[in-house]
Design goal:
Blueprint (H helix, E strand, L loop, with lengths): L2 E5 L3 E8 L13 E7 L1 H11 L3 E5 L1 E3 L4 H10 L8 E3 L2 E10 L5 E8 L5 H4 L9 E5 L3 H14 L5 E5 L15 E4 L1 H6 L5 H8 L7 E5 L5 E4 L5 E4 L13 H14 L4 H16 L7
Parallel strand pairs: 1-4, 1-9, 2-7, 5-6, 9-10, 10-11, 11-12
Antiparallel strand pairs: 2-3, 7-8, 12-13, 13-14
Helix pairs in contact: 1-7, 7-8
The structure holds adenosine-5'-diphosphate and beta-D-fructofuranose (FRU).
Beta-D-fructofuranose (FRU) binds next to strand 2, helix 1, strand 8 and helix 7.
Length: 285
């Protein structure tokens, strides 16, 4: 069992389940509705905590009533919130259309809250942690956090999720040991496959493990020797909910690497875990 700090966001996800994705300007009735805590870093922490790790979240929590739901869910999963910073604003909210036919999720995200910053991060005692997981957002502040962590606890691995193209985000690549890219990032940068992306970013992160998940096609990784590895996806009998599949995959990677698995095995374990998640609603993997 390891002690893990995740730095990133918590959201409120309002999920409308529909029987087939609506066309634009249509009016359809949802067949069910759920409110859940979401957010990439906290989703990953919830899965890691279910895998038996001791987890804490560092992020910003709005001083408003919806924050209670976030705290209640994190507490239910035993996730520490000591490093949380409170600020005025609104809990970031995602309006999700979840298609019951194929589990696809379409997200409209609303955000009106300051980002977690270096000033908050530098006050944290990092000595309890065996792993630090970051979301690649708020680039300049995240770079300072990564550099600080590398200076204070060089022996503690740092993983970094690169989900979206953001100005300057490539400057972060050098500062992590495990880089977790998304298919959306690869495509937005003009790459047609995970392999192309990983080959292109290798010179910017010569010592890191590189990983890129690619939905139903599984995931690719590049080891420190530059070899490209692939795992297929492991589809469940019925795909019901892909919201947070990538966050679950990232948790599987962190768990496997903490257990000193080689990259090929880590990729497969992460894809199996993410596949299981797609077969059920939420994160009770
Ligand atoms: P995100 O949730 O960030 O969009 P992906 O769609 O790339 O992430 O999914 C991450 C991982 O989850 C994939 O590598 C795959 O292993 C698994 N996965 C995603 N969608 C499916 C699916 N429909 N069936 C089985 N596994 C899936
Ligand atoms: C899933 C997710 C949702 C959240 C959104 C934030 O990966 O974390 O839970 O609403 O993405 O971008």
């Amino acid at each position: 069992m390891a002690t893990i700090l995740g730095i990133g966001i918590a959201t409120l996800d309002i999920i409308n389940e529909v029987d087939g994705f609506p066309t634009e300007d249509a009016e359809v009735r949802a067949v069910a509705q759920q409110r859940r805590r979401g957010g990439n870093a906290t989703n990953t922490l919830v899965v890691l905590s279910r895998l038996g790790h001791r987890c804490s979240w560092a992020g910003v929590l709005a001083e408003e009533s919806d924050a209670g739901e976030i705290l209640a869910d994190l507490s239910r999963h035993g996730i520490g919130t000591g490093p949380v910073h409170r600020a005025g604003g609104k809990v970031p909210t995602s309006y999700v259309t979840l298609n019951r036919q194929n589990g696809s999720r379409t997200i409209v995200h609303w955000r009106d809250l300051p980002e977690y910053g270096f000033e908050q991060f530098r006050t944290l005692a990092l000595h309890p942690y065996d792993w630090l997981h970051f979301e690649g957002r708020n680039v300049e502040e995240t770079r300072r956090m990564l550099e600080h962590a590398a200076a204070v606890r060089p022996e503690v691995p740092r993983s970094l999720e690169i989900e979206k193209v953001r100005p300057g985000i490539e400057t972060l690549l050098l500062h992590a040991d495990l880089l977790l890219f998304s298919r959306g990032y690869a495509r937005d940068r003009g790459f047609g496959s995970a392999g192309e992306l990983l080959r292109a970013v290798r010179p910017s992160a010569p010592d890191a493990l590189l990983v890129c998940a690619w939905g139903e096609d599984g995931a690719w990784g590049m080891d420190r020797e530059g070899d490209l590895l692939h795992t297929p996806a492991f589809p469940p009998p019925r795909v019901v909910d892909t919201l947070g599949a990538g966050d679950t995959f990232n948790a599987g990677m962190i768990d496997a690497l903490l257990n000193e698995k080689p990259l090929a095995i880590a990729l497969e374990q992460a894809a199996r875990l993410a596949g299981r998640k797609c077969g059920l609603s939420g994160f009770d993997v």
